Amino acid sequence: MKFIITLMLAGSLVAQQANTTQDTITVSTVALESVTVSALRATKDTPMAFTNISEEELNKQNLGKDLPVLLRFLPSVVTTSDAGAGVGYTGIRVRGSDATRVNVTINGIAYNDAESHGTFWVNLSDFASSVEDLQVQRGVGTSTNGAAAFGASININTNDSSEESFALLSSSVGSFNTLKNTVKFSTGTSANGFELSGRLSNITSDGYIDRASSNLKGYFLQGTYTSENTKVKALTFGGHERTYQAWYGIDQDVLKKNRTYNPAGAQYDEEGNLQGYYDDQVDHYNQDHTQLHIEQRLNEHSRLSLGLNYTHGYGYYQEFYDLWYDQNVSFGGDTEYDYLKLEPFTINGQSITTTENAVHKWLDNDFYVANLLFHTNVENVNMSSGAYYSHYEGLHFGELMWASTANANPNHRFYENTGTKIDSNVFTKVDVSIDEKWSLYADLQLRWIDYKVGGEVAGPESFTVNDAHTFFNPKGGFVYKPTAKHQFYASYAKAHKEPNRTDFENGNPVPEELDDFELGWRWKTSHAFLNANLYYMNYKNQLVLTGAIDEVGAPIRANSGDSFRRGIELEGGWNITPNLNWQANLSWSKNRNKDKYFKRDGALQALGDTRLAFSPSLIAAEQLTYSQDNWSVSFVSKYVGEQYMGNIDAELSKLDDYLISDIQFQAVILNKANTPTLNLTVHIHNVFDTLFTSNGYFYTYDDDWSSATAITTIEGVGYYPQAGRHIMAGLTLKF
Questions:
Q1: When you count CB atoms within 10 A of the terminal residue's CB, does the N or C end of the chain come out lower?
Q2: Separation of alpha carbons 8 and 18, rounded Å
Q3: Residue 37 has what pLDDT?
Q4: Alpha helices, H only, 298-415
Q5: Strand ranges, E, within 165-265
């Protein structure tokens, strides 16, 4: 039945993305975004699959949930939330690729963490309120900055300067004691071209999962100067988050009995009886970004842009290690004196070598970037070139805060290591219009990586990385437009991607390679549009998710030899009547490891082609909207097919499919000339109260102690349940 419903959703584009068709670039525009867009973004004549999202469409969705959740209805997108309700730690996957393989830039500056490659939106609370527009490119996409896009890229532009002054107050309230308050302002652009704008935000939530609370603070401050040929944009933004940990998940038995249970911080007595939970089992982090962008029009056809960035991140997660749990369940050794780098001592003739403890595990990092972009347009040739350099330094260390039995100095440091990374690239992209029907596209990038780590990763365990690479990433394609309504395109893109820090901590990884082939058709009239995109992504040494996670919930990956993803993406929309609009998308794919081998029960087995982890073959979404002059209501649905949490097709690792639906209502309450405007937004999420899990983990280990003659492979799973029916409502007052 779900499959039949899904087929009815076919078409494309999604939920509140109504006006997100591909945009042309106006060459004469002086705005800062023009060079960035021309250099890093796709246009309607680029032979690749992408979706543009406007500020207006983001605002319709933005009641406090993280940015990935606001994009959940886009083609080939699956999102999840540790806390279960979209506030706190959230994740996004595109075409089966997790966030470490989705490239994100903010004003052309890489946002992915240099070491982990992850994107942690929890550190930028309510950042969607400061976004002018964004573009999601699926596949390798155009050349970008930072770690390569192996599933998608998200290119974000922050708010441009406002011509008019305004003050905005926005508040949202909803289930799980979720509360969002935002204050935003602009002085407007003065006669001499200056403007100052800013935002302060605070979001709190108890979370759907027990104790999965969030307290998120965000800020954004920007000054701009604009003249006929020059624009200067200086901005600082960031946030402070304190979240109770919810990254452990629960097993299948607990899922059936108590799906909101959170094992984080559990405390046990000597007999293993649960006594309570540690109050400060929290993640506590600050992240501050400072950027300067200067754009200069050189002549009628050419523009040059310089971007500078400094990011400072600092904070810790606090962990309580229970002695009984460590010695009887996890066997992690986190209560051992060796792990804590403590000297054993004797009490009443008994040697003390273990202790319950609470620790801070710190990250203190600095990230420097210089980005130079050039764009020129002469007759039928558009050319963009760029040079990018970044330097990252991250200090990782652990401090003992408390121990039940230990002889240690305050803030005893039991491990420390430093990671440094230099990431640079140069690229040139050219679009050539041969005639009214044919255009050619070429994009060449050369990228250099130098990554080093030295020190101890935990206690006495040393950790060293010395990894350097030079990658050449060519891209090319063509666009054919036989009529004004039809457009066909084809492209090829090569990408290389280096392993991340977690990969090195869990093995000896090698870089991965990707050949991405895209073939598409776009059709558009005044009342409807339809885009179809075929893709084949062939990987060598793909770092696939194994299904397992580390101690902070980060996915563990391993090189998988040869693998591929192939599929079709459909997206479309239809203005059925002047007041009724329907949009939908569907992604149908096959994602496989080639000739997979796995050691089970002590013997190596040939499994043949197996499914890639966390890669559903069917994803679909739809939005049906009825609107009047001052109000609209939408019925929105998302279907995600079954997926496997591992790469060996184990039945236990299967994550069930799900279909969820929302109702979204917007109304303009006040909108008279020369008076404040007041807007109301109400979202009923998961209106049919579907019980589902969008994420989990799968692991195996060999039991070689239960039998003297046999080895038995044991499988285990964990789940991250998502919230049932819940509601958010918000008011926005603008002066």
A1: N
A2: 19
A3: 67
A4: 323-325, 337-340
A5: 166-174, 178-186, 194-205, 214-226, 230-244
Q: Which tokens go with 88? A: 């706190």
> The pTM is what?
0.92
**588-636 pLDDT tens trace:** 999 999 998 888 888 888 889 999 999 999 999 999 999 998 999 999 9
Place of tokens 């996890």: 330
Task: For tokens 């496997």, name the residue.
Answer: 644
CB atoms closer than 10 angstroms to residue 612 = 25
Burial label for 393, CB within 10 Å (0-12, 13-18, 19+), is: middle
pLDDT given at position 8: 38
Within 13 Å and on the Cβ side, how many CA atoms surround 197?
Answer: 26
What is the C-alpha to C-alpha distance for residues 569 and 11, in angstroms, rounded to an integer?
9
Q: What is the pLDDT of residues 436-488, one digit of tens each?
A: 999 999 999 999 999 999 999 887 789 999 999 999 999 999 999 999 999 99
d(CA 146, CA 99): 13
Which domains does the chain carry? 2-734 (2.40.170.20)
Distance of alpha carbon 191 from its chain centroid, rounded?
A: 40
Mean pLDDT for 354-381 is: 94
Judged by DSSP in three states, 100 sits in helix
pLDDT average, residue stretch 241-255: 95
Residue type, 198: G
DSSP-based three-state secondary structure for 205 = strand
Which residue shows structure tokens 């699959």? 49
Q: Could you tell me which residue, 4 or 630, shows the higher pLDDT?
A: 630
**Distance from C-alpha of 52 to C-alpha of 32, rounded to nearest angstrom:** 18
Quote the tokens at residue 352: 């003390």
| Four-CA torsion 96, 101, 107, 110, nearest 10 degrees | 170
| CB < 8 Å & 24+ apart, contacts of 22-26 | 22/50, 22/52, 22/522, 23/52
What is each CA distance from 589 to 80, 133, 352, 546, in whole angstroms? 20, 28, 57, 20
| In contact, 275 and 268? CB cutoff 8 Å | yes
Which residue carries 């990018």 as its tokens? 388
Instruction: Please give the Cα distance from 659 to 654 (Å, whole number).
Output: 16
Percent with pLDDT over 90 in the chain: 80
Which class for 85: exposed (0-12), middle (13-18), buried (19 or more C-beta within 10 A)?
Answer: buried
Q: Which residue has the tokens 């979240």?
A: 243
